[in-house]
Amino acid sequence: MTRIVTMTVNGQEHELPSPANRTLLDVLRSEGGLTGTKKGCDVGDCGACTIIMDGKPVNACLVLAVEAEGADILTIEGLQHAPDRPHLLQEKFMEHGGAQCGFCTPGIVMMAKALLDETPAPSEDEIRFALAGNICRCTGYTKIIEAVQSAAEELNKARAQ
Amino acid sequence: MRRFDYYQPKSLEEASALMADLGSEASIIAGGTDLLVEIKEELRKPRHVVDIKKIPGLRDYSYDAETGLRFGALVTARDLEIWAPVIEHYPNLRTAVAALGSIQVRNRATVVGNVCRASPSADTIPPLIADGASLSVYNRGDERQIPIEDLFTGPGRTVLVPGDIVTGISVPPSRPQSGRAYIKHGRRKAMELATVGVAVSLERDGDTCTEIRIALGAVAPTPIRARNAEALLRGRAIDPAAFTAIADAAMAESTPISNVRASAAYRRDMVGVLTRRAIGQAMGGV
Ligand SMILES: Cc1cc2nc3c(=O)[nH]c(=O)nc-3n(C[C@@H](O)[C@@H](O)[C@H](O)COP(=O)(O)OP(=O)(O)OC[C@H]3O[C@@H](n4cnc5c(N)ncnc54)[C@H](O)[C@@H]3O)c2cc1C
Ligand code: FES
Ligand code: FES
Predict the structure, then answer these.
(1) Does the CB of B160 have a partner CB in chain A at under 8 Å?
(2) How many domains does chain B fold into?
(3) A139 and A94 in one domain?
(4) Is 0.90 exceeded by the ipTM?
(5) Cβ A130 vs Cβ A115: under 8 Å
(6) How far apart are CA A52 and CA A110, in angstroms?
(7) pLDDT tens for residues B102-138?
(8) Of B30, B48, B128, B143, which residue is 20 to 30 A from B206 by alpha carbon distance?
(9) In this predicted model, what pLDDT tens digit does every residue of B9-28 receive, in sequence order?
(10) B113 Cα to chain A: minimum distance (Å)
(11) What separation in angstroms does the CA of B175 have from each of B111, B129, B199, B205, B206?
């Protein structure tokens, strides 16, 4: 039973064929060609598949594609302003060495975006709490937290002006 | 993932009739954070998956000082975690929802799903039992209430029958001079299932404890009440000297198993420590 699921992905309407038993993660990656969203564990433990669905960060591996009918979805590919103009968070991850192998990075950047949308000036504890569902095997997290803090500072400076 | 057929009923009547027709090979999906993991890991093999998210009215939540807290089957752990009345009046439930998985999981996971999955370690169940909460259940035109305490028959098993759709949960209001606590014990702060969970809700009149309910998670085939422990405090003066006997009674009532997360002996010891600590926290809230 394959359905055509209509959803808005990164501001554009997409019609993606989805059998009932396929996850949104698999459909975004395979049918949608959006391979920036990663599959680590496929069971909600690692956060590599984090996307923002109707304004909220979720694990795309725990959503069926058919459940996303009509949804508004933001993936890592939709974050940059243009191919050569990365999002502030992406710049800060590069600057602070917040990515090493990079596999966790798209999920962490999406989660950090969701955090800053809700809490523009998070404390270190709030950043750690928000990123609890994102596992990184390389960085030891310190540089990730610095990158998020530095993005928050810059955003707030820009807002104050 | 194994193949299944997917249905999106638009009303309770339709969902309930469908579930009754499809019988034991059908599963309800709400947030899917348990069901999809169980399908992927082949712990469950439903041929039909019935999505209840298109049914109107199940996303509401409200709080009233007279009637208490009421939330629908589609209300997520995250909805309650960030909602002021829960933070203010139900610190025990707040602790439970804020410690359930990650924010990503909590944005999908419903509290009703957490209860219906009937895991002995589910975080929201002990505080809901200690608070005397009940489920509203719909089945083909009939509605009934089930105290959450009476829902469980074994790990993953409940008294619910095909056609039953849980529509929501009601939690009685907090009285003056009442206090509530939930302590989740695990090996790390986040992304961890409870090794032991202890919830205490109590009411007092001056120095006397007029009512107390203690609920324990992850130390028996289902979440349980520690009734013998409660009886040592109910109707009596609150005397810290009695806490050791109360903790011992709670330990004696638990029947934990050993698994990868902890040994049975350790779990039983922690029931004692945490029961005492949770009573102290709940009294602090009075
Ligand atoms: C990475 C991860 C971490 C987690 N950590 C924790 C944790 O720390 N603590 C914890 O307690 N849980 C944890 N969980 C499990 C938790 O997410 C689930 O128990 C969740 O709350 C279930 O709700 P759901 O809406 O996702 O249910 P679903 O998966 O959709 O359903 C769960 C079960 O309930 C039934 N059901 C759902 N709604 C109804 C209804 N209205 N009427 C009748 N039956 C219904 C379904 O048929 C199914 O059997 C975790 C899960 C993941 C993936
Ligand atoms: S792939 Fe989804 S959480 Fe790991
Ligand atoms: S950078 Fe390698 S997993 Fe995080």
Answers:
(1) no
(2) 3
(3) yes
(4) yes
(5) yes
(6) 7
(7) 999 999 999 999 999 999 999 999 999 999 999 999 9
(8) B128
(9) 999 999 999 999 999 999 99
(10) 14
(11) 23, 16, 17, 11, 14
